[in-house]
Amino acid sequence: MACCGDTPTLEVLAATSILRAHLPALKIRVINVVDLMKLQSQSEHPHGLSDADFDSLFTTDKPVIFGFHGYPSLVHRLTYRRANRSLHVHGYQEEGTITTAFDMRVQNKLDRFHLVQNAVDRLPHLGSQGDYLKQTMRDKLIEHKAYIDRHGQDLPEIRSWKWGEKAAG
């Protein structure tokens, strides 16, 4: 899991907590990118990481679910020469209207529930355990929609979520 930006970082951390609660044997690394230019090679930008450093963080063969505060295509452009071809970026998709903060993330598929679903999709070895978790996330999205339609605000577990607390779902 990787992230760049305050809201994507919050959602990636929340998704990680859900994954760890439901799949405790799964090894998950979270990388918070503060300087986007680190994603480029050092031969292309002075802040860029060497291939060895990039690969040590992002691996060469593991799926990376990346939450980004902008257009996903930018992250893809910055990393297209890197060895890991399994980078799946969630970011701004120009979806949304006047709604809650979390619902904007849901509409752009940058929320914890979509991030968890994407991670499970990339890990077919999870089998029925992964299928169950994906269904749980679909149920949470339905619950979220019903709640904001009824109350005009995000679910209490979303509004008050803090790192280290029991995961929703």
Summarize the structure.
The chain has 169 residues and is an alpha/beta fold. The protein has helices at 6-22, 51-58, 72-79, 101-107, 112-121, 127-151, 156-159; strands at 2-4, 31-32, 64-68, 87-90.
Structural account:
This protein is an alpha/beta fold and 169 residues long. It is 47% helix and 8% strand. It is built from seven helices and four strands, in the order βαβαβαβαααα. Strands 2-1-3-4 form a four-stranded parallel sheet, sandwiched between helices. Helix 1 packs across helix 5 and helix 5 (112-121) runs antiparallel to helix 6 (127-151). The mean pLDDT is 94.
* Helix-strand sequence: EHEHEHEHHHH
Label the structural class: alpha/beta
Report the portion of residues in β strands: 5-15%
Measured as a percent range, the helix fraction is: 40-55%
Specify the biggest β-sheet: 4 strands, parallel
Unreliable segments (pLDDT under 50, ≥5 consecutive)? none
